[in-house]
Each structure stands twice: as structure tokens, then as C-alpha cells.
Specification:
Length: about 325
């Protein structure tokens, strides 16, 4: 049974609480150059984990001998984190400034989407691969396609290049029902990837499965594949497993923030509602246990689809145990 340490939301700002949480979870394993892998928020997202919460984590990692840097990778959809230069601007606008955090901020796939191939489908972002250890800092949220996003999704979708992101999103590509199509052209107007032809057929070479056309299609001619959540969660677990087993280091620690728990991830601009009130922060060396505890604290029924498919699959792939002991500090 794996240990998952827990502090309540009201205690996050209390002196030494985050430090105590990290120490109980085993922060000493983070040595050398430590990647602090997180999502710094799409521009105009309001609910990403704030730099004020990351700064004390940086201090704890440094106090325990690590040399941290805050990091994330660029997106496959074309918004304000699509290139490294876009992402630096967004990160700085959101307050992720080295002078404030006390450590560098590096976009892990570099200026040219650089990665290290570790399997047929998986390339790990260069700076994450080249680190010595990693603290995976995840904001627990719902997700439009994968139902839930926590540590497994942060590793799978967040530690890889665009090619690997596209591999996972193959299973979210839209399905077209020609009989319902009115020829309104709205799908072509919103697609930023030149993936819809004049007859509204989807070009799967270009489509990144972003779903923008589905939202724009008022007739229902475009829809998500019926088994999208199941298939995407399976791919998330598969890629997380390939990343974790493909890294040249094994010192990994997981920190899940269960605050501002929105139905959508931090790629979304708006956060109109919350799934539940703030809960707290979890820390563990077990990625399966920390995500299972996160889902059970939020409550399974708050999610649109079964959020634990990725967790069961990650356990099957040998990433950890769903049985956990929750230890409140
Ligand atoms: S999901 Fe739709 S909008 Fe997005 S890239 Fe594919 S065709 Fe274009
Ligand atoms: S948005 Fe829907 S109805 Fe309009 S052209 Fe595209 S597929 Fe057809």
C-alpha cells in the first residue's frame, strides 16, 4: 500500500506546512537539476497554480540540495503557448518570473520542439529528459476529453513533444455525419490547422483533435468519437508509463493541488464553475496512488465520465498502486 500525504486547503499558507508535506513525501530524493513540471496556465485562464504557491516549493527543493527550474512544454493547439516564445510571454504575464520564483523558468521542448525519442510514439521533452529528478506539480481538474487531469495527465501530455501530444489526440479527432451537415462552413472557419476540406471531410494528417469544430457545429454533424474518454485515458496511461520508464532517472515525486477544481483544465480560458470546494494538497512517490486519492477526495460522481480509467490502466502498466493510506499532516 502506498503512502499519500495530505494537508488541508486552509493550511496551505500556514508556515512550514508545504515544507512538511514535501519532507514527509520524500523531497530528499530530488537532487541535482530538478524539473518542477507544471502547467503555467493558458493566457486568460484564472485558476492555474499561482507562482505564490510555487515559490515556497522552490525554496524547499533548494534547501534540500536540489537545483530547481520551473518548466512545461508547448501546446499542439495554436494559442498563447504554442511556441516557446509564446509560452515565455504567457508565463511571465502570469507571474512566473525567475526573479520572483528564485529559479529559472525553461520551456522544456526548447525553441524547436526538441525531444528525445524513447519509443515509437513517445518523445520526452529535452530539458525534462536532461534533468536529474522531477517534481510533478499538478492542478487536479476535470477535463473535457479525459474526464480527469492530475499527475498521470501532467506527465503524459505535459512532458512530451508535439508529435507525442498528437499521438494521444488521435483518439479525440471528430467524426462527421454527412447527413446532418448543412454546409454552413463554421467548422472550416474555426479550424486553425487546415484540417477540413471543401467537402468537410477531416484531413487526419493535419487534425490535432482539438474539438473546436465540434463546438462550432450547430447541426450536430461533427461529434466526438463515442469511446473518446476511454481511449484517451488509456493513451495517457500508456504515454505516462513510457515517459517514466524512459527517463534516465527514477527520482520522481508527485504533488497534486486540489484547489480551484474546475471542470476543465488550465488550457481553458474560462472557469465558470467548480466541481467542489477546495480540498488541499496531496504528495506521494506513487503516481497511481496520488491520482486515485485525488479522484476519491473530489468524488468520482463529480466527473462526467469514469475518471479512474487512466489510474487503473497506469496500475496495470506497473506505475503504482491504487491502494493507498491517506496520512493527514
Ligand atoms: S478537431 Fe476540428 S478544429 Fe481541431 S484540428 Fe481537427 S478538424 Fe481542426
Ligand atoms: S460546422 Fe457542421 S454543419 Fe457546418 S459545415 Fe461544418 S460539419 Fe457541416
Amino acid at each position: 500500500m502506498s503512502e499519500v500525504f495530505f494537508i488541508r486547503a486552509a493550511d496551505i499558507g500556514a508556515e512550514n506546512k508545504l515544507e512538511s508535506l514535501l519532507e514527509h513525501a520524500g523531497v530528499d530524493c530530488l537532487s541535482g537539476v530538478v524539473a518542477l513540471k507544471m502547467h503555467m496556465g493558458e493566457l486568460n485562464n484564472k485558476t492555474y497554480i499561482k507562482p505564490e504557491l510555487v515559490k515556497p516549493i522552490v525554496e524547499v527543493v533548494k534547501k534540500h540540495g536540489g537545483k530547481p527550474f520551473v518548466t512545461d512544454t508547448t501546446t499542439i493547439y495554436k494559442e498563447k503557448r504554442y511556441t516557446a516564445m509564446d509560452y515565455y510571454e504567457t508565463a511571465f504575464a502570469h507571474g512566473f518570473l525567475p526573479s520572483f520564483l528564485g529559479c529559472p523558468v525553461l520551456i522544456a521542448d526548447g525553441l524547436r520542439d526538441d525531444g528525445v525519442g524513447v519509443s515509437e510514439h513517445v518523445e520526452i521533452a529535452k530539458y525534462i529528459y536532461e534533468s536529474d529528478s522531477m517534481l510533478v506539480i499538478s492542478h487536479a481538474t476535470g477535463h473535457g476529453a479525459s474526464s480527469f487531469g492530475g499527475a498521470i495527465k501532467n506527465v503524459a501530455m505535459g512532458c512530451v513533444t508535439k508529435n507525442t501530444k498528437k499521438y494521444m489526440h488521435e483518439v479525440t479527432r471528430p467524426v462527421l455525419n454527412h447527413d446532418l451537415c448543412t454546409g454552413c462552413n463554421k467548422c472550416r472557419e474555426v479550424c486553425k490547422h487546415d484540417a477540413i476540406g471543401e467537402t468537410y471531410m477531416i484531413n487526419f494528417d493535419n487534425c490535432i483533435g482539438c474539438g473546436a469544430c465540434i463546438e462550432a457545429c450547430e447541426s450536430g454533424a461533427l461529434s466526438s468519437p463515442p469511446d473518446m474518454s476511454y481511449e484517451l485515458q488509456k493513451r495517457l496511461a500508456e504515454v505516462a508509463s513510457t515517459v517514466i520508464h524512459g527517463l534516465p532517472y527514477t527520482d520522481l515525486l508527485y504533488l497534486n493541488f486540489l484547489i480551484n477544481i474546475t471542470p476543465f483544465c488550465d488550457c481553458a480560458e474560462f472557469a465558470p464553475e467548480y466541481l467542489c470546494p477546495d480540498i488541499g494538497v496531496l504528495a506521494s512517490k506513487d503516481i497511481v496512488a496520488v491520482d486515485m486519492a485525488t479522484i476519491e477526495l473530489i468524488k468520482v460522481e463529480k466527473f462526467k465520465e469514469d475518471p479512474a480509467i487512466q489510474v487503473r490502466e497506469a496500475q496495470r502498466l506497473g506505475l503504482g498502486e491504487r491502494d493507498y493510506e491517506l496520512i493527514e499532516l
